[in-house]
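step=encode ok
step=design start
structure_in=
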């Protein structure tokens, strides 16, 4: 065991851990960083026993974590996501949207956002408002949801690499966090392992940021007896729901992606209004009008597009490139996405990123049979999507067709059953849940300040603490929660 006692031991260097390292380092804190990976991507070694995720990879073990794979598209959760909804079991956060907004605002500068207020539709300049309003739909049923994408995507690997030579920071990369040694409701040390064997490291406070799939493994291997650890694994089941044909051709670039300044793109998705969600008892789904240049949706084509667009790990297959070169519609869709081209189009695919509701049959547990190279049980992932979640998507289709889009303006090119949503959706690589935030230990693993209910000097800060997942990637909210945790730790000291 090292004799040194750090102010903080931070496990994981993704968005949660990377943000915490940066903020604490700026305050001169003595930090030990534990990272399972190194400079290059490694696949996770969890055991998938649930639904197939449908993507090449959904996590990345390396410095910077999954921030190495994402495109940095930012938006925050909606106010309704934080509320207890009578039609969604286990919904409701112990904090509200208004409490998190100041932290979204402060952390947005780290990501390179210039105009935070543009996340709110009413604050957009006239040019962008006019584009939003050029697409006709029932605005009592649907709301615009704004996304911003700094094109110089923030990669937390670079932040860690810049900080690792700092005199107050010790980086332990290619090092596995195995379990916490706990005495009298406090972490006494963290057991870690690397090529030289097993050792221990000590800190005053520990912040676990290893991710939704890894955190339960570490906590359960530590013997922490909280019934919620590993439960309620969620993602954003996603895929095309249908296609519409406009009666009049459209040219609203904002609904695909528009560079409103040289280094930032902005776009609008669509969500159901709070009124409609309450009336129809729907989760908070989001969808995009993705320009298309031919009638019809091919699920094989969608899988190829996901392979080429979703990740930046360099693992592009030659056969996928050849497929695109032979398919002009797919090629045009990718070019519009990549280059923010202002195309005229007659068709739009309605691509859904859905909110998965909490489900205790979707979980992460320890394997009963498989162990890692150090003898500790591996994580077993059981991702499941409930029948209620599938049913809600069918309901959305009919609401859109009957109430959202007028027949005078649109024609639906498919029936709901034509696309077989239940067998073709994929993960969005937005894993959340498994260490949920709650008012008490009966309902969760951490309190509203991200402190463990069971261990006094242990905090958790990543997507695993989300009680519900909303409809956007979790990166911006994780960073905002990290900024809020930093604020809490600084006040509490």
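sequence_out=
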């Amino acid at each position: 065991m090292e004799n040194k006692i750090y102010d903080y031991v931070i496990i994981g260097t993704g968005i949660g851990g990377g943000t915490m390292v940066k903020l604490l380092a700026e305050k001169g804190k003595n930090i030990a960083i534990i990272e399972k990976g190194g400079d290059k991507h490694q696949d996770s070694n969890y055991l998938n026993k649930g639904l197939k995720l449908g993507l090449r990879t959904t996590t990345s073990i390396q410095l910077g974590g999954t921030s190495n794979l994402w495109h940095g598209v930012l938006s925050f959760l909606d106010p309704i996501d934080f509320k207890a909804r009578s039609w969604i079991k286990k919904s409701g956060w112990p904090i509200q949207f208004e409490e998190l907004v100041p932290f979204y605002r402060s952390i947005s500068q780290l990501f390179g956002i210039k105009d935070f207020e543009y996340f709110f539709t009413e604050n957009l300049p006239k040019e962008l408002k006019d584009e939003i309003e050029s697409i006709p739909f029932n605005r009592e049923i649907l709301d615009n949801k704004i996304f911003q994408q700094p094109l110089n995507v923030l990669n937390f690997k670079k932040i860690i690499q810049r900080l690792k030579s700092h005199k107050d920071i010790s980086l332990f990369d290619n090092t596995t966090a195995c379990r916490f040694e706990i005495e009298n409701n406090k972490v006494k040390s963290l057991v870690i392992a690397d090529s030289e064997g097993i050792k221990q490291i000590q800190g005053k406070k520990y912040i676990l940021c290893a991710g939704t799939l890894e955190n339960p493994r570490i906590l359960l291997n530590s013997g922490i007896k909280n019934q919620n650890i590993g439960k309620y694994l969620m993602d954003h089941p996603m895929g095309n729901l249908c296609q519409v044909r406009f009666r009049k051709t459209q040219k609203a670039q904002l609904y695909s992606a528009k560079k409103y300044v040289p280094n930032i793109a902005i776009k609008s998705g669509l969500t159901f209004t709070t009124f409609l969600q309450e009336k129809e008892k729907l989760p908070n789904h989001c969808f995009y009008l993705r320009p298309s240049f031919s009638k019809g949706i091919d699920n094989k084509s969608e899988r190829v597009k996901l392979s080429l667009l979703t990740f930046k790990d360099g693992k592009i297959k030659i056969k996928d490139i050849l497929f695109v070169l032979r398919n002009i519609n797919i090629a045009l869709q990718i070019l519009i996405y990549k280059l923010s081209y202002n195309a005229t189009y007659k068709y739009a695919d309605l691509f859904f990123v859905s909110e998965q509701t909490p489900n205790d049959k979707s979980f992460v547990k320890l394997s009963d049979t498989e162990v890692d190279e150090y003898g500790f049980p591996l994580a077993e992932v059981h991702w499941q999507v409930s029948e209620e979640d599938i049913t809600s998507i069918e309901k959305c289709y009919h609401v859109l067709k009957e109430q959202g889009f007028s027949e005078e303006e649109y024609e639906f090119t498919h029936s709901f059953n034509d696309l077989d949503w239940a067998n073709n959706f994929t993960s969005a690589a937005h894993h959340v849940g498994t260490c949920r935030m709650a008012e008490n230990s009966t309902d969760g693993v951490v309190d509203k300040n991200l402190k463990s209910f069971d261990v006094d000097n242990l905090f958790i800060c990543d997507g695993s603490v989300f009680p519900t997942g909303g409809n956007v990637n979790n990166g911006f909210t994780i960073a905002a929660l990290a900024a809020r945790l930093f604020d809490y730790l600084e006040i509490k000291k």
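step=design ok
step=annotate ok -> The chain has a mean pLDDT of 90.
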